[in-house]
Task: inverse folding
């Protein structure tokens, strides 16, 4: 068994795919955070699918983020038992 | 038959079904700690998924969320960040917690942290933080139940007795079946509340406006209450700090326990990425009902009651009662998990480790059951004080539980974390949380949980670097073991360990 004294920074993923996934997640999460969100927070028009534009934006962005996570779970993250 | 009697009968019928499930859990279970508190670590994906989602969505999702949207509108989207971020922790933290829990037989959060950091003081401190900040959460659920009964019966069954009703039903099935009863009833409740809010939401909008076109609803809100549809730039500190404060939900003791209970770690991964769908889609009809309520019932005194009031006014009584049973389910499915975990923490961390280490498994489980009654009783008494907004209680509670995060990250990720760092960080974090909640409320509009975790992290890191690191044996047992399972077989990372 390894002694736990590995090289590297603990919060940085160790595989290339893992690093790409982390960067993509941060980018998409930033799209629903300030300061970017101020661009749409007060924008009501045009209405899309009956929703004010900002409501549509929030719903779509959060759903895209979830979809992205599902892709990560499918292609990147692995879970092994002992 | 009078409407309030019909409503009461429907809710009682629902509670009978829940009790039958609790009884079934009791028949299947065994009388030992691992079975009563973590279901023998054999819970399957569907049950684990719904027990997680139903525990996540409390009466806040049903009542508090509608109250918030009714009073403050679009700013509620800040909660969505938490609905995506917090479940992610089930994978990032939960996978490692599951591996360690299975290997070393952990049942409570303090089991894991004490094993890494050593000493009973950590155990008591973690259990105390868990208990103190979980109880207000149960209080909020009791309040939710009280409000629902009050609204459903037109005040015939008042707030206090509604809360008492939840107390009796919940204690009965948690007493009987432990974790298995909680998880099975959560599954029923999770499905019921989602279906109820979706069907009920559209029925209310159709009844109130004669159309299912939500576009016209939003257009009317834009004309009459335009501020409800936008978020002012000055709101950003709350938007950001709310998501951090609510991140406490990702490691609150019931969530932590759910990371021990699943049969396979793969389940945690899929729960992490699919549960946000349930969590955020739940809110779409809540938005519609709350905005509809703003148009037809403006200026009600208690915004948290808007959802039951709308259902009672615009749907047939039996249907409204069924939807409100969904609201009860939301309250119950969270409170039962909280009660169960409070009992687990006190029994395991205080009674079994400090008071009576020689106690048999049966006697420990009996104590666990007695504690369920005691904690539920305390919560009912707290609920009878009736604070105005459920959301404030929830935010304080989660802000407090969030303070356990650095200790956990240290144990499973950061090899340099020390016991002294954890104790100092936790104490400072809690003090800052209390000061920024009660003495200087939300300085710079940033919520108390965020201030608390910031102070906690700074102190945790500084004190950890100033004190001796954990022994090599401890690091090897934790980090070495985790790395041997997670990375050693991966060709891209294995070279790090050779």
Result:
């Amino acid at each position: 068994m390894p002694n736990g004294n590995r090289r590297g920074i603990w919060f940085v993923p160790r595989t290339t795919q893992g690093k790409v996934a982390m960067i993509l997640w941060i980018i998409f999460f930033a799209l629903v955070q300030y300061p970017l969100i101020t661009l749409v927070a007060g924008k009501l028009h045009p209405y899309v699918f009956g929703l004010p534009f900002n409501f549509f934006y929030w719903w779509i962005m959060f759903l895209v983020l979830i979809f992205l996570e599902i892709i990560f779970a499918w292609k990147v993250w692995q879970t092994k038992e002992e | 038959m009078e409407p309030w009697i019909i409503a009461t009968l429907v809710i009682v019928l629902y509670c009978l079904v829940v009790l039958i499930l609790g009884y079934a859990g009791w028949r299947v279970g065994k009388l030992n700690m691992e079975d009563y508190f973590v279901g023998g670590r054999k819970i399957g994906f569907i049950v684990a998924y719904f027990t997680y989602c139903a525990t996540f969505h409390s009466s806040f999702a049903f009542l508090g969320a509608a109250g918030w949207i009714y009073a403050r509108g679009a700013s509620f989207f800040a909660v969505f960040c938490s609905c995506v971020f917090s479940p992610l922790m089930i994978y990032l933290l939960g996978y490692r917690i599951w591996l360690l829990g299975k290997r070393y037989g952990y049942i409570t959060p303090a089991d894991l942290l004490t094993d890494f950091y050593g000493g009973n003081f950590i155990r008591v401190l973690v259990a105390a933080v868990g208990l103190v900040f979980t109880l207000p959460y149960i209080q909020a659920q009791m309040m939710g139940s009280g409000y629902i009964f009050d609204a459903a019966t037109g005040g015939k069954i008042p707030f206090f007795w509604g809360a008492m009703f939840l107390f009796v039903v919940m204690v009965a099935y948690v007493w009987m079946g432990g974790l298995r009863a909680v998880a099975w009833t959560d599954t029923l409740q999770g499905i019921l509340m989602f279906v109820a809010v979706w069907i009920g939401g559209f029925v209310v909008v159709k009844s109130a406006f004669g159309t299912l076109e939500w576009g016209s609803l939003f257009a009317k809100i834009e004309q009459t209450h335009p501020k409800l549809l936008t978020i002012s730039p000055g709101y950003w500190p709350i938007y950001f700090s709310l998501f951090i404060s609510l991140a406490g939900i990702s490691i609150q003791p019931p969530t932590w326990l759910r990371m021990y209970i699943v049969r396979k770690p793969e389940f945690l991964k899929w729960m992490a990425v699919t549960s946000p769908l349930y969590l955020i889609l739940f809110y779409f009809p809540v938005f519609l009902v709350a905005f509809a309520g703003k148009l037809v019932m403006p200026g009600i005194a208690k915004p948290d009651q808007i959802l039951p009031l709308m259902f009672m006014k615009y749907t047939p009584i039996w249907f409204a009662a069924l939807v409100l049973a969904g609201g009860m389910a939301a309250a119950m499915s969270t409170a039962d998990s909280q009660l169960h975990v409070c009992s687990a923490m006190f029994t395991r961390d205080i009674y079994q480790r400090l008071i009576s280490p020689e106690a048999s498994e049966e006697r420990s489980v009996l104590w666990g059951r007695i504690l369920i009654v005691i904690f539920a009783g305390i919560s009912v008494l707290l609920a009878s004080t009736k604070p105005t907004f459920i959301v404030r209680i929830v935010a304080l509670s989660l802000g407090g539980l969030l303070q356990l995060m650095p200790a956990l990250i240290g144990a499973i990720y950061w090899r340099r974390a020390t016991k002294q760092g954890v104790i100092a960080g936790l104490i400072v974090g809690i003090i800052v949380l209390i000061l920024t909640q009660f003495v200087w409320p939300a300085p710079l509009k940033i919520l108390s949980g965020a201030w608390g975790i910031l102070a906690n992290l700074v102190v945790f890191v500084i004190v950890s670097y100033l004190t001796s690191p954990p022994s090599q044996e401890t690091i090897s047992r934790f980090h070495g073991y985790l790395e041997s399972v997670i990375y050693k077989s991966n060709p891209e990372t294995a070279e790090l360990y050779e």
In short: The longest helix of chain A spans residues 53-75. Residues 16-75 of chain A form one domain. Chain A touches chain B at residues 1-8, 10-11, 14-16, 29, 32-35, 37-38, 41-42, 44, 47, 50-52, 54-55, 58-59, 62-63, 65-66, 69-70, 72-73, 77-82 (CB under 8 Å).
